[in-house]
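To: structure desk
From: M.T.
Subject: fold request, one chain
Message: Could you run this one when you get a chance? Sequence is below, nothing fancy, just the single chain.
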Amino acid sequence: MTDFNLLDPELVAIGEARTKVQLARQAFEAFQGVTQEQADRIVEAMGQAAEAAAAELARLAVDETGYGVYEHKFLKNLFNAKYCAHAMKKMRTLGVLWTDEVARVTAIGAPMGVIAAIIPVTNPTSTTIFKCLAAVKSGNAIVCAPHPRAAKCCVRTVEIMAEAAERAGAPIGLLQCLSTGQLPATRELMAHRDTALVMATGGAAMVRAAYSSGKPTLAVGAGNVPVYIHRSVADVSEAALMVVTSKSFDNGTACVAEQSVVLDEPIADAAIKSFEQHGTVFLDIEQQRRLASLLFIGRGALNPEAVGQTAIELARGIGMNVPPGTKVLGAALDDVGPQTPLSAEILGPVLSFYRSRDLAAAHQRCREVLAFGGEGHTLGLHGQDARWLPACQICRHRALSSTRRACSAGWASALAPIPRSCWARAPGAARSCRTTSRRCTSSISSASLTRTAPGATSIYRRWGCRCSCEPRLTLV
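Reply: Done. Structure tokens follow.
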């Protein structure tokens, strides 16, 4: 007689996914008709509960995953629980959003249903907090699917927020989390007939699986982020400090953290000295080879045991002694691609460095880095020369930051940008700024920046840019 294992872990996990999606669907139906004010009260209660538990959840995340820094994960939890919740409070997401009396158009916000939220191992609790807040704010139910290595901390995060939501009036089952994070259960969750939307954060394989689920998907994948330090930078030392701070934050586990530093030749030597002063130790060729062997396994896959470790721990792993204050390991490279492993995305405090003789060379190098695992992600800039600041001159179709800040900023879609041949078919607009009289053109996948006069404030918008004056809008 055949001995069937009725407690096969994969079958149990798949069954759990189905059960939780069905319960979430029932909760969503009970939640239908919720007003904006009711949803906001529930979101506020969830945010307060997550804020109170930010330290507990940070400790759970570090202890379970072995990745990152407790204090930094606490800050990320606190930011999402407090400041993201506060920012959401000002948004209308349900019912009438706006009305254009002239065009006789009214926008109405309606929920999708059950959201399948894929949670990464590198930022488990903070990502869970944000996605749960966003789901309930928009009137949806949510089922989180954690990475197996971060299941316990994610389950605890959802428990805390679900209890707060239910006390504030949400139906039971509106927020849930899979208990094991097994891949078959995650696939079942994404493909289930009652799942209406997938929000995926993770590696390239998981993002591809999400896009292949047959469901509408919002996803962010790997990012190989270049940052260009131009000769016009106001303070080379400050720029180096911001990059080091960004890359060492939570031991480099943020996908928007800089990965490659492209230095303008006239300031390259000064920049390298500044990086060394701020805790960067540069490796020789042999040390780079040993580090690459430690960080990568198989065909360029990151070694899970090397992710999210400190620079000192990584140095120790390759038999290298570094000063106690070392924050980042640096590698001077000449090439980008599979033949140069350290030019890939590394979820750890490791930076690659390139020299560029001029703007054209820097542009090309940034494009090469982005093409090697960072398409559609993020680019950072440091400089003051307004002749090269417009985004379209550096890298088309990507949001970027040229402000004084640590950590680059951008849309993380894991999708290749719209090709130039499609520009003519994309709606666009040309803006003429009363402050500078400069025009800026944007298309549906780009964020552009208009140079502003001293004292004017620039902000980024999906459809171009605005400064402190009111721009004139003319059709292209």
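Reply (cont.): The two ends are 75 Å apart (CA to CA). Let me know if you need anything else for the meeting.
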